[in-house]
Amino acid sequence: MAGRSRSEVEAEIKETLGLVPHFFSRIPDDLMDYEWEIFKKLELGETLIPNKYKELIGIALHSETKCRYCTLFHTEAAKLFGATDEEIQEAVHYAKNSLGWSAYLNGIREDYDDFERELGEVKNYLASKG
Length: 130
Prior knowledge:
single chain; 130 residues; elongated
């Protein structure tokens, strides 16, 4: 579908979203169709990861990048796709916890090969129990 005019793409955006968000206005004409198709597929379309979970990932990711635009977008999109306030809180708490472990492991310069070996042992042990 690439190659449609800006006005054709904007008409589709308006039909899909109810308006053409201002941030689309700064996308160069020759990239507009391409960028909209990617946005539409990844943000609105059904992919291998259900939309609610993609948006919860987005919330967790942008709690770290500190992008208030993206945090707001993904929070509202997650709610539209059925996420509860509790799920949103869990996603953010998970990000906080994971980032803390990352800081710790990198800060103490944990040996990567040892870490990988031990993780394999844990994985095998847990798999044998279930």
